[in-house]
Amino acid sequence: MSEYLGRARKGVAAAFGFLAGFDYYWRKIGHAFVTLISVTTITFVLFRLMPGNPAQAMRAQFEAQLEGSGQAADPEILDQMVQVHTGFDPSQPIYMQYFEYVRDIVLYQDFGQSIQYGDPVFDILFRAMPWSVFISVYGLALGYSTNILLGAAMAYKEGSRFDGTMTVVATFLNSIPYYVGALLFLAFFAHDLGWFPSGGRYDTSIEAGLNPAFMASIVHHGALPIMSSFIVGFGGGALAMRGNSVRILGADYLRVARLRGIGSVRIATRYVARNAILPLYTQMMIGIAAVFSSSVVLEYIFTYPGVGWYTFDAINMRDYPLLMGSFLFFTIVTLVGILLAEFTYGIVDPRAGSGGENESY
Amino acid sequence: MSPTDESSTDGGVQLSDDQLFGQLADSDSVELSGRERLARILDAYVLAPGRVAWNDWRTRLGILIISLFVLAGTIGPRVIEAPATNQAPTNHPPFVGGFGAITEEGGWIDLAQVSLGGVSLPWLSIEFPLGADNYGSPIGRQLVHATPDMLEMVVAGAIVSVGFATLIGVTAGYKGGRTDSVLMSLTDIVMTMPGLPLVIVIAAIYPPRQAWLVGVILAIDAWPGLARALRSQVLTLRQESYVEASRTMGLPSRTILSRDVIPQLMPYVLINAAQAGRKVIFESVALYFLGVLPFTTANWGIMMDTAYSEAFALVDLGNFYQILWPMSAIVIISFGFILFSQGMDRVFNPRIRARHAKTVGGDDEQPPT
Q1: Domains of chain A, first to last
Q2: Planar angle of CA A242, A246, A248, nearest 5 degrees
Q3: Pfam family example for this protein (chain B) (predicted)?
Q4: Is the ipTM reported for this complex over the cut 0.90?
Q5: Count of domains in chain B?
């Protein structure tokens, strides 16, 4: 009884981690915050401090533009234009620029202004973000569910022909990069067979809204990108799950559980599945970063205007504010995903909160 | 281990002591030259696990595939002519004439004569077997001539990421305490950064022009996972009695790490070097395919990009072979890397080995010596 109470309390604490004041959750939030600040610093350094940096390049570009239109290039006006686009004033000292840059991003969500679109970067990316999250989350979820089911099945039938074949198949699938999968899907399912559209987020001829036809078209357009990002999530996870399950199936406590007469369903879910999933869960935190990273390539291949597509667009157009902004966006989305995973990990693994301090040599 | 002249203090029979340790001491007291030492280390940590791994078909196939690519990367460019535009008809299809071409004149393969030292020998002349691209540049030659740069990139990326991961992971795991938490926070921060966008941002501002530099930039993304894994390995190793003994003897941490800890991790590091190599290939090809990196080095990704955006290989399936060959090269080399690392995993990972031994029957598995 007390065990269940403790678990319930832990669950509440996980949901309201920041209120409950658990050290573990605070530390994780602190980590996320430090990561955000470091990434912001990196973009700032790349942006402003390095020789030949984009801020200088942009300034030269504006100068050329102004001179082209017959206006005198006033350095003050140039500085102002750079400030509008990047969010910092080149005439101020470096530390003030840095401070303003970080403050704008963290407090006001001001990522600067896109050169080619003329809109604030935040607005462009914020509109694009749900689409990227949609693709990535479904891909990841599908990939990991398949990993768990397939790995468990392989471990259950260990040594059988099914196990042997699936191991080879999983290994081979693992060596196919997601973009190769995406290109194959695009060539055969979209261009050759015509089952799926070859690009876009939804059918523009259908009225947008909560009508079934529109939602169906979103799923229809999203199917191939999701299939491809499924490859990212799939990875070597099935083999890892198989290994974990095999190890646990041979463990002593499982034998004891059987001797105690515990039902096989309970053993399968509580004893085997839970312990075997734990390592996969930590692996998933790396997987989240990987799956969001992959969307740059996938959205380019499927012409799917999410954050990744804008990243690619920004590189081609040398739109540095948009490029930096999309990198920050990817970081934030990844951080939120990882924080969610970490918080729920506290529920799955009761040991997580009490991180063992080891002796220092 | 060296024999001492002191009498035993526990009142035991002195003779037995000599009998026990005499022989051992003799063989042990022989001064080893540097070369012999190296040979022994090589035998214990490289050859012996290698022999065990070789018993597994995976490792054999993996090593075979990797060596094929290494051959293609070292000897290939010397043997095979460099590709250039208009060497072949544009969009020349692969395997013209099919199997019939072996017996008939024309097609992709023909019997020919080659004179070697005045003696004329029958020889096979192969004409653009994999076809040619949009510009009439033969694909087979392009594939081979891109391999050296790819290998350079893989090696650089693998060395940097694995070296960095070992440094961080082993130090954090062994030192523990504050060092550990600082280093692991750093690792976590890099791990949670989305790797590909970071690399893209860096590459967009400072385009790397050499293959090895591309590898090094891609390594930024590859080390954190391995550093964490190595740390947890070291956390168990540091409790081992021989490490404890070295510490009690007052050896500096540097010596303990390099003599006692790191050699134990070698197979694991090797596995992950293969994985890192695979990752470098995946990501570099993706970046070249996107056109983010400058086309100053040869890469399969550039071939894919040409096929995709200029020959429209996906829309016009008649040109699909142009994108298929570079993709196959990527899949095959990464399959080789994965097989190799899985085979090595058998050597290293007692979890898999123990269970494996159990299904074969009992604990009579030979120790890897």
Answers
A1: 2-108 (no CATH), 127-348 (1.10.3720.10)
A2: 120
A3: BPD_transp_1
A4: no
A5: 1
